[in-house]
Structure formats: C-alpha cells, structure tokens
Amino acid sequence: MEKDREKRILFPQIKGILHGGDYNPEQWLDRPDILEEDIRLMKKAGMNSATLGVFSWSAYEPREGEYHFQWLRDCIDRLYDNGIYTILATPSGAKPAWLDERYHEALRVDAHGMRYHHGARHNHCMSSPVYRDKVRAVVTRLHEAVGEHPGVILWHISNEFGGECYCPLCVKRFRNYLSEKFGGDIDKLNHAWWTTFWSHQYNRFDQIEPPYQNGEYSIMGLKLEWRRFTTWSMTDYMRFEIELLKELTPKRPVTTNFMQFYEGLDYREMAKHLDMISWDSYPCLHNDYESFASTMAHNAFDHALMRGMKRDKPFMLMESAPGLVNWHPYNKLKRPGVHRLFSLHAIACGSDTVQYFQWRKSRGSYEQYHGAVLDHLGAEDTRIFREVAALGEELKRLEPVAGSLVQAQAALIVDWDVMWALADMRGLSDETKRYAEICASFYEVMLRMGVEADVISQTDDFAGYQVLVAPMLYLLRPGVAERMQSFVEGGGELLATYLTGYVDENTLCYLGGFPGDGLSSLFGIVSEEIDTLYPTDQNSVRFEEGVLQDGDISGREEQVRDYAERLRVSDADVLGRYTEDFYAGEPAVTERGQGEGHACYVGCRLSVGGMRTLFARLFARAGVCGRAIPEGVQCHVRAAGNRRYEFYLNMTDRETEVSDVQGEDILTGEKLQGTLAMGPYGVAVVMSGI
C-alpha cells in the first residue's frame, strides 16, 4: 500500500506538500539586491518551489529571433542551490508587441468580427499557424537553455486558457469540425439542429457561420456545437504544446491551470491530455451575501470538481491569494488565520500543493495591487508574510498526507454540456436557472451532513459509488440512461430532479414525455408541465408518512421555489405532494424501486431542509455513513492503505467542539480520545490506522 502511495506522489524530488508560487524575477533584473533577498525570504517562508516564466516572452525574446535566457538560468540555479525547485511555464499566455505588429493574423477576432489589438493577455488565435511557429521556436530555445536543468520538475503550459476566436481560419475549422462530426452529410446536421424552424436549413457546410454576437440565432444546436468546438480548438492548441514538450522532455509531467467551473471551456475534455490537474482558487471571502462557511463549501465543491477529473492522484492548487486580490467587486482582506485555513482546506480536499499568485507584488501595471507574499513594503514582519511562513512550517508536518486520496461514497453529476444547453434554452427564467449554483448547493447539503461526494461527468464510471445525484440533467448523452438503470438495478440509490432528460446531445427534445431516453420508465413518472415561479409565488411540498427511516415526519412541509413540475405517476411511490396552486395535492417527489436499488425524482426546487431529508433517506438505505459535525465545520478524509487522515476545519469565527475524534493531530502532536476543541478558523488533521 505504501508503494501505491509513493506512485501517487506528484513530485518525488519533494515527496511532501509543494509550497510555492508565481515568481517574476524578470521584473527585477535591475535590482540584484531584491533577487538575492527573494531567495532568503523564500527559504524563511518554507517555500520549496517557484513558478517561473508565465508571462516572460518579451524578456526571453525582446525582438524576433533575439533570445535572452541567461537571467533565467541564473535564477533557476540560485533557487536550486537553495533547495527550491522550479515549475517552468511556457510563455504563450501573452505575446510580445513585435509579434502582433508583424503577424497580425495571430490576433483573435471577437464575436462582432473585429480583430483584436495588442495589449490584452489572451488574444492569440488558437488556430494560427504563425503563432504556433513562434511558440515552437521560443519553447525550443527555452528547453535548450534550461529544459534539462535538474531543478525543473514540471512544465506549466500557458496560463488560464480562455476565450474564443471568430477569425476566417477558425470559422473554416469550425465548418470542417462539423462536417467530420456529421459524416459530411448536411441533412444529418439539419435534422439534428431542427433547421426547418425559421427556414434555416443549410445546403452546404460552408454556409454555416458561428453565432456572432450581433446576430439573432435560433439554433440551439449551433450554439452548443460552437462551444464544443471552442473547447476542441483550445485543446488542439494545448496538445500542440504538450506534444512539443513531450518530444523535448518525455519524462517530465505537464499541466495547465484551470479556473473553477469556467463557462468558456469544458475542462474535462482538456484534462484527458494532462498529467495532473491544477487550478486557481480565488473565492470572494468575507462577502455580505452568504456566510463564510457557505463560501468555503462552494470552494470545496470547486476542489471536488477538479479532483474528479483525475481521481487516481492528488491535484494542485496552482494559484491562491495569501492576502487580497485586485479583481473582485470588493477586494476584501483575508482575516487573521484564514490563509492557514484556506490552504489546509485545499489539502483536505485532495491537493498536494499550496501555491500563490504571487511571490512579490509588481510595482506597476494591472496586477500591482494583487495580493502577494511580499508587499511593496518588502519586509518580513508583515502579517501576511508571518502567516505564510507559519504555514510553511506546518506543511512540513503533512508530508505523510502527500499521495493519499480523498474517499467518496457519493457522486454528484455536473456537466458542461448541460450548463451550456440550459443557458441557451428559451423558457423558464434566465435569472433563476443557476445551474452551477444549484449543483454547488447540493454538494453543500451533503457536505454539511458529513458525506464526501465526488463531482463527476455523466459519462464517467458510476461504479464504486453507492449514491448518485444528478441535478437538472437537462441534456442526456447517449447511453447515460442505460447506465443509470444498471446503477439502480445493481443496488445504487439515484436521485434526479426537475429538468432531467428534456433534450438529447443535439438539444432535440425527446418525444413521449420527459425525462426521455427511457428514464421515464426508470423513475415511473412523466413530467407533463413545468411551472416557473416568481420570487413572490409560494408553494411547498408536504411529505408523506415515514419518508425518513428513523422517524415519522408525516405532515412536514418544505418550501418550493423557482420551478415545479406537474408529474404524471405511472409506477412509483409518492413521497411528497404540492400544497398550493391548481396542482395542490399532486405528486412532487416520487421514488421507484428497481432491482436492488431505487430511483428518486424531485420534481421541484426544494429547500435545503427538503433535500437533506431526501439525502438522509438515500444515505441510510445505501449504508453511507456521514460524520456528525457541528454547523460550520467541514470534515474531509484522505486515505492511503490503512492510514486515514481526517481533516476538521472550523469555518466560523467562534470556538466549537467536535465529538468522537480518535487519533493523533499531526499538526500539534496531540493525542485525541473523544472531544476535539477548535478555535476560530481552526484546523486539525487527525491521523489514524496502522
């Protein structure tokens, strides 16, 4: 078992938790005193890595064909000599002025058909041959200069991929992409997109245009395929860099940094080509619209989303802010103790790294006030530096945790195609669909019940989970319905909600009733209508007797908001009924047993209390044991072999206690045999097992 853990260690050179951040020495080449001081302070902060070169192209190649890498070699040497390893980025996240001036075709075209100008960050065309040629040239020379350096442990491709391009070359590639997808048969595309509506049939693929922003597009399939194509195109570009790097350094791993549940790209498609998952976490902490605990629950959902892309190894927290950021609506300081909590929370959720943007604040330009380990003051006696240094010491004690994995018995299905298709559908309310928010709220309910859930795609393997939750699974990919049925027949507990199975992968509505593709039979219901509720509308669900196995809640009511489906029940038990409107008394929540499992359908947007009731029912039947924890505390468990690491994190600014805790807190060395006392924003990592 220990050998399996060693295989999952992301960086054998470090073995434990990687601690570092973005470092920009090219901004300080005229200040050798600062560069020397950086090394001293990095060591004092307990940092064992630094990310270099993220936006260094103009420093590498100030004029076309003129390369300068000695400063980089010197920096990597200094770091390595002091026990600090380098994550080396390719510089393609932002390009120099000479490239845009000479090779105008490398610039993107926006959704209005206008060519970008130099100055933005991600403004290159993913399809541009000349851009790829210039990237190949600079990356090849970068490798020649430092690529074999023993201090370099990871390639970091570009930075925060995003955006789309509508240039003629990308439009042509889009048409070719569609032709290949539909086998060159334009009639298949016309049928899949239902183009007879508004007389939009195409005769040839070269008639198809992307959904420009200044046009009115009625074709939902076109909009969805454009988003899929944008992911395909970005992935194709990313693979170009990966293949180049693997050719140059076959054994060195490659990653790129993702951004939460980003709407612009389907990260799951990109993740297939990466050696490890990394992402940048910048939640709006201490806001005025939700509790800190809720913000951190959503952040746990984001961690789980990233973790779920490669469940066989830890992920990387590539960027976080040790202090404030500079781009939130309100840039709030992290309160004392929150940096430690936030960082250890990432590790609790499956990260083996804590990294920052940035090491030292820039003197000028867009991110000059973005938080950093070192402020413009440049001193080590600041609150933030002291907190980072203290964390650095604690991370050394977490070395045994590295390579362990988060254990989950439940899974939450979250899908980019569903998010995109729901955003484009004309119906309901654009203000209240809130797909990503609702998925995160389901995760939060389970988390508060002490149940860890993975976040997976509808195409992922369902094996190994006892409970499967699918909120608003509006679009069904081929074969998913059959796999859900097999999951239930094999003893799984499945819960789905309103808006399940309305359309196929091309956004064509299923005929014969929703949910379609055979799911109506699995759930034993048909959704006949869906009502959109105004904020002032009131309805609720009254649960039937014995819905909870450990007690009678007959007559209990839970609020309904936003959406309510009218269900026609053919072969299912009714768990709850509406109390208001013309459909008062009609089924709202149903359940049907099939094989060894059950399929529960929630036809409305229920309150947190209502969902908790239903989850408790499913968990009890599936044998999923939650952890009894106080309100505002999160519990996550990582394991390797017989060794367990229970992370308890107090997401409140008050003292609290957790009962029945057994083991050793490896942060303090304290032996626990009962009650764990936790201070405000406190963290304990309790090790148990052999």
Highlighted features:
690 residues; alpha/beta; six-stranded antiparallel β-sheet; 18 helices; 26 strands; 31% helix; globular
Description:
This protein has about 700 residues and is α/β, with parallel strands linked by helices. It starts with a helix and ends with a strand. It is globular. The mean pLDDT is about 95. Strands 11, 12, 13, 14, 15, 16, 17, 18, 19, 20 and 21 form an 11-stranded mixed β-sheet that branches. A 6-stranded antiparallel β-sheet has the order 10-22-23-26-24-25. Helix content is about 30%, strand content about 20%. A hairpin with a 2-residue loop joins strand 22 and strand 23 (about 645-650). It has 18 helices and 26 strands. Helix 6 (about 130-145) runs parallel beside helix 9 (about 220-250) and helix 7 (about 170-180) packs across helix 9 (about 220-250).
Please state the overall shape, judged from the principal axes of the Cα atoms.
Answer: globular
What is the arithmetic mean of pLDDT? 95
Number of strands: 26
**Tally of helical segments:** 18
Range of helix content:
25-40%
Structural class of the secondary structure composition? alpha/beta
The parts where pLDDT drops under 50 for at least 5 residues are: none
Question: Any idea what the radius of gyration is?
Answer: 26 Å
Compact summary:
By secondary structure, this protein is α/β, with parallel strands linked by helices.
Task: Describe how the helices and strands are arranged.
Blueprint: H1 2-7, E1 18-21, H2 32-44, E2 49-52, H3 57-60, H4 70-81, E3 85-89, H5 97-102, H6 129-147, E4 152-156, H7 168-181, H8 186-193, H9 220-248, E5 254-255, E6 257-258, H10 267-271, E7 278-280, H11 292-307, E8 316-319, H12 338-348, E9 353-356, H13 383-397, E10 405-406, E11 410-413, H14 416-424, H15 435-448, E12 453-456, E13 467-470, H16 480-489, E14 493-497, H17 519-523, E15 525-532, E16 539-543, E17 557-569, E18 573-578, E19 587-594, E20 597-602, E21 604-606, H18 608-622, E22 633-640, E23 643-650, E24 656-665, E25 671-678, E26 683-688
Parallel strand pairs: 1-9, 2-3, 3-4, 4-5, 6-7, 7-8, 11-12, 11-13, 13-14, 14-20
Antiparallel strand pairs: 10-22, 15-17, 16-17, 16-18, 17-21, 18-19, 19-20, 22-23, 23-26, 24-25, 24-26
Helix pairs in contact: 6-9, 7-9, 9-14, 11-15, 15-18
